[in-house]
Amino acid sequence: MRQPTEFLQGQRKAIIMFRSKTGSKVMAWVMLAMVIFGLGGYGVSNFGGTVSTIGTVGDQAISTTDYGRALQRELDTFRGQFGKTLTAEQAMGMGMDGLVRQQMVTTAALDSENDRLGLSVGDANLRKSIMATQGFQGPDGKFSRDTYVFTLKQSGLTEAGYESKVRVDMARTILQQAIVGDVPAPKPYVDTILNYISQLRGFTMLKLTAADLTAPLATPDDAALKAYYDGHKADFTAPEAKIITYVSLTPDMEAAKVTIDDKTLQDLYKQRLAEFVKPETRAVQRLVYPTQAEAAAAKAKLDAGSATFEQLVADRGLTLKDIDMGSVVKDRLSAASGTAVFALTAPGVVGPVQSSLGPALFRVTSIVPAVTTTFEQAKDKLAAGLKQDKARQMISDQVETINDKLASGATLEDLAKETGMQLGTIDFTATTQDGIAAYAEFRTAAAAVKPEDFPQIIQLKDGGVAALRLDKVRPAALIPYDKVADKVLAGWKAAETAKELKARADQIVAAVKGGDPLAASGKPEVVAPLVRSGFVDGAPATLLPAVFNMKAVGDMDVLQDGQTTYVLQLGSIAASPADSADVVKARTALQDQASQGLATDSFELFASALVADTKISLDDNVIKAVNSQLH
User: Fold this and answer.
1) Ramachandran sector of residue 42 (left: φ over 0; alpha: ψ -120 to 50; beta: rest)
2) Which domain covers residue 565, as residue numbers?
3) Do 397 and 537 lie in a common domain?
4) Could you tell me if 125 and 40 lie in one domain?
5) Do residues 103 and 176 share a domain?
6) How many other CB atoms are found less than 10 A from the CB of residue 282?
7) Percent composition of the chain: helix, strand, coil (DSSP 3-state, to 5)
8) CATH number of the domain enclosing 84
9) Predicted confidence band at 630 (pLDDT cuts at 50, 70, 90)?
10) 23 and 143 inside one domain
């Protein structure tokens, strides 16, 4: 399927939303927003004196006001994606205005086609849509004519104008729905993909490590090690580094100067008592019945084992989500309910109990005991928090002074002498993340600093501050052999081990193909059939793809992962049971995805053909005038 344009992707979202269970309410909100933004009294004004349209599409005119407002909305969207500093000129250079015109031309072509076909909605449907719009509902949740009139008036709309626009939008939606309809997903397409993702493969896996080699590695001589060093120079090259001098002042540094008296800590403990004294809570589900007799009969079924709690819930036409009360304390429940629920010593079902909603069964799924943290236990934590807060304020109070000193030419060394800031140096590379470089704000500044830059205050995430200076750049350089001899030896051993393991694995494969069982070479693990997206504990991510790349039962492969090598033998190929929950779920998802894709393609083709067959006349001068008013 070809990819839809950006506009049609937006149309697809609207279509899918319309077809959803809550689509009617959502569409009512969408239409209200479209009409208010399209006709309301702010944003782009009328352009060009008596010129009120940018052109026509069939029998539909596109007003300058509608076009201007659509441009402004799209510009706001672009700024949300690319930053608030994006100018209108930059956005239009990215094709924003063309996208808006394409959208409006297609919408107008649909409306023109509606007129040709005579599609419209009756007064009853229009009334129903308006009355269902939440924006027009009063405090009681019902349609309020006063709210309706007030909302339209505030937006500069008349009832007739708004209702006409809604009628057009609803008619257009009918046309869109007729086009996309319920497009069935092609069965061969769904079956092919489903068979691919749900195929099961069982296999045998023999894991080889250095301990499985038949002989120890030979001791390398200097020539072998130097040859390895020369062949892997990138592994022994120190990266380019910025030699940076910095000063920093962090809350941890200042907190050491702060003392907090017990009275302050005791007051804070009382203020935050709910954090330290937590009552027992229980995760509770409440299943309410109309009568005590019905509740008792349900409990009897449960006790006899003739029904599960889930079945009782389903029998009431409910789901577990419908009856979930979440985590509750005893006081949240009625007296009788609280006593019964909190009398359970373990998760279970109690009842019938008279709840605030009537006779009910209560199921407790988990119990969280009460927790009390005494003042003495909480004291250190409270003190640490207060010290950090005070330290951040102390740092904030010094920022202006530090800035003034930097502005007057003070060096970082001067700051360290004249303030509480600590002086340090760091060899900074792209991978440095220790010390002061643990702060992302410092790393960003260090990566960007140039030799000619003057030190500036860097605000750190925890409330601290820092400043830095680039002293020099140390170029990348090969580390002398004698300084990395241990790493060279370790690298040589790793490479040789991998080479020997590969040779051993190839010998095993040859032996199995010659008739020996895989178990003759070690202790292979038989892995139960898995789908492609399965998981083998401790194995590399490349293992299952290797298994699924094998063509036939009995095929073998060798997979290397660092110092571990795997000998794989395919044991079985089978389809997942068609009635398994995972396969049914996957089939439904694939059918929905394919159906929606085809619906989108159908609409795109229809819209493209409709626009091509509709007479379009746009005034470039008026369009330029509207574009120039964007801000």
Assistant:
1) beta
2) 199-232+485-575
3) no
4) yes
5) yes
6) 22
7) 55, 20, 25
8) 1.10.4030
9) confident
10) yes
Residue type, 86: L
Tens-place pLDDT, residues 455-487? 999 999 989 999 999 999 999 999 999 999 999
> How many structural domains is the chain composed of?
4
Three-state DSSP class for residue 350: strand
Residue 587 lies inside a defined structural domain of this protein: no
In a domain, 274, yes or no: no
Nearest-angstrom CA–CA distance, 29 and 14:
12
Give the SS3 label for residue 134. Answer: helix
Cα 606–611–614 angle (5° rounding)? 120
Q: Counting Cβ atoms within 10 Å, is residue 253 exposed (0-12), middle (13-18) or buried (19+)? A: middle
Residue 555 lies in a domain: yes
In this prediction, residue 35 has a pLDDT band, given cuts at 50, 70 and 90, of very low
- Both 216 and 298 in one domain: the answer is no
Instruction: Judge if 78 and 136 occupy the same domain.
Output: yes
Rounded to the nearest angstrom, the gap between the alpha carbon of residue 426 and the centroid of all alpha carbons in its chain is 36
Rg of the chain, C-alpha, whole Å? 36
Are 218 and 249 part of one and the same domain? no
Distances from the Cα of 37 to the Cα of 32, 180, 250, 404, 429, angstroms? 8, 27, 49, 49, 51
Alpha carbon 565 to its chain's center: 36
> Which contacts of 120-126 are long-range, i.e. CB under 8 A and separated by 24 or more positions?
120/167, 120/171, 121/167, 121/170, 121/171, 121/174, 125/170, 126/163, 126/166, 126/167, 126/170
Q: Given 369, 400, 420, which residue is the final one in a domain?
A: 369
Listed in order, strand segments (DSSP E) in 443-504 are: 458-459, 465-474, 477-478
- Decide if 191 is inside a domain: no
* Ramachandran class of 247: left when φ > 0, alpha when ψ lies in -120 to 50, beta otherwise: beta
Q: Rounded to an integer, what distance in angstroms lies between the CA atom of residue 308 and that of residue 315?
A: 11
pTM of the predicted model over 0.70? no
CATH of residue 439? 3.10.50
| 109 contacts 58 by C-beta, under 8 angstroms | yes
Judgement on whether residues 447 and 527 belong to the same structural domain of the protein: no
Other C-beta atoms lying within 10 Å of the C-beta of residue 81: 7
- For the chain, the first-to-last Cα distance in angstroms comes to 38
Task: pLDDT band for 48, please (50, 70, 90 cuts).
Answer: very low
